[in-house]
Amino acid sequence: MIGAAPVGAVKFHGARAVAVFGIVLLLLVWIGIIASLNSEHQRVLADTRADTANLARAFDEHIQRTIAGLDQTLLYLRAEFQQDPVHFDLNRSVANNVILKRVSVQIARIDAKGWLADSNVPGFKPVDLSDREHFRVHRQDNSDQLFVSKPVLGRTSGKWSIQLTRRLDDTNGNFAGVLVISLDPNYLGEIYGSINVGDNGVIAVIGTDGVARVASNGGGAFLGRNLDGGAVLDAVQARQAVTVQALGPLDRTERIVSLRPLPSLPLSVLVGRAKSEALAVYDRSRTWHLLIGGIVSFALGAALLVLYRMVKMQESIAADLAVKKSELLASRVRLRRYVADLERIAEVAAHDLQEPLRRVVAYAQLLSSHVASALDDEGRGYVAHVVDGAQRMRKLVKDLEAFVAVDQMPESDGEVAVGAAIGTAMDRLGEQIRAAGASILVDPMPSAAIDERALTEIFTQLLDNAIRYHAHSRKPVIRVSVACEGDQLVFSVIDNGAGIDPYDRVRLFEIFHRLEGIDGHSGTGIGLAIVRRMVEHMGGRVCVESQLGEGSTFSFSLPRRKPVHLTLVGREVQAA
């Protein structure tokens, strides 16, 4: 049909819409999960970088204070020595210094030849230390600078230490030896180790030469070892305060490392946290996110699959319905054409048969009059049959014309008196009423917005039917009543006739369905069909109730489109 969408296109569009919707929805779910995980990953790394930078800053300040305190002690001891080199007593000078006892392994003085001349280690013995780096540096360089050595194993104390040294000069300004405070790396290592930077984290002090002076989480295993290069060593040598992500130069563990160079000293504080440990909580969160995302995706996918199948099924049903609808519309068009053709044929037949039938009836009656004396009883009977058949044929054509004309029935222009329509119907049936000796009682009738001609025809057919099928044993008594039921007027024609068999009652209002009358003749089979068609055309319905041998009640309802006013219009016709 013109304007109808192709069935296949509609089906494909619906299935594609569900599929696209499902894919987009799943993509949005996973984009949200990935974006959330990425944001969490970046936040954890940013927090770790901030933590390591803050710790590096704190340890930077701590090591500076520690070294500054030790250097002040060296300067104090050097001043006492230079005042009286002969009577200088090292042990007396350091006896009351609590800090030195906690952080140092040994405080010693090396003479100008490189021999250990004095020490706070009880029972020390002179040892040749002229090969030590700190002795050679001060002997060759007369600048007044604090020197921090690489970790060395003490020959007197037998412990690893970091040498903080100052040059000694005699009263003439000549090299007189070196004052040494051996810093215990384990002291700082224990402090650093008490800070939780993870099992694989590290806190260290590294020189610009790439050698580790102090280290936590490994302690002596890292002391004195050289960095193997890389971003950490480059930053240490460049004395940069940076936070980088790099492999550990000693154990190749990937860490987030913060470096802080010590002012005026060739040292940098390093704080590193293993990336895997920093991301441990994130990894658990990621596992849960992925698990929940998988469950949600599975549930959502299952729901979308069910929805997809339902849409497919619905579209299949819709396609079948569309086919059936198109077939139904085509059948309706054909039916309307057939009905129109039949109505046209009936209308033409009814009009065209009226005139020939009128002539047949007229000439049959004339023939009956002219030849009545010339014919015997049998011949007159034949002529009577011709006249009766012609009249019945004429009645059939008139009823057929009335049946066809129902669709052209005009709307009511105003209210009519129902009682007047009943009176007209009774006038039409006057001869039948008198012949049957019928009594017709009419209750007070309202006025209503109903087509008068149609109403007259309805009552004519119902009264004619009640008279025609009255009982043999009694005269017909017919009553016409009305009742108001909401917005409906219900009219009833009640008779005391022979009643209707239940078998016949089923098809009573069908066209051409005939019952045998009291005189042995049946009707045309169109009267009650006309009644039903007219009533339904005006928006009502018709029904019948009957008891065989007791009578029948034909009722029909019509909408009360305007307010009705009951008037005491009654009528009773008694047969003469």
TrEMBL record:
User: Does the record bear Chloroplast in its keywords?
Assistant: no
Lineage, top-rank taxon, reads Bacteria
Annotated SUPFAM superfamilies: ATPase domain of HSP90 chaperone/DNA topoisomerase II/histidine kinase, Homodimeric domain of signal transducing histidine kinase
Transmembrane domains' residue ranges:
17-37, 288-308
Q: Show the catalytic activity.
A: ATP + protein L-histidine = ADP + protein N-phospho-L-histidine
Write the record's keywords in alphabetical order, separated by commas.
Kinase, Membrane, Phosphoprotein, Transferase, Transmembrane, Transmembrane helix
EC id: 2.7.13.3
For the Histidine kinase domain, which residue ranges apply? Answer: 348-562
**This chain belongs to which protein, by name?**
histidine kinase
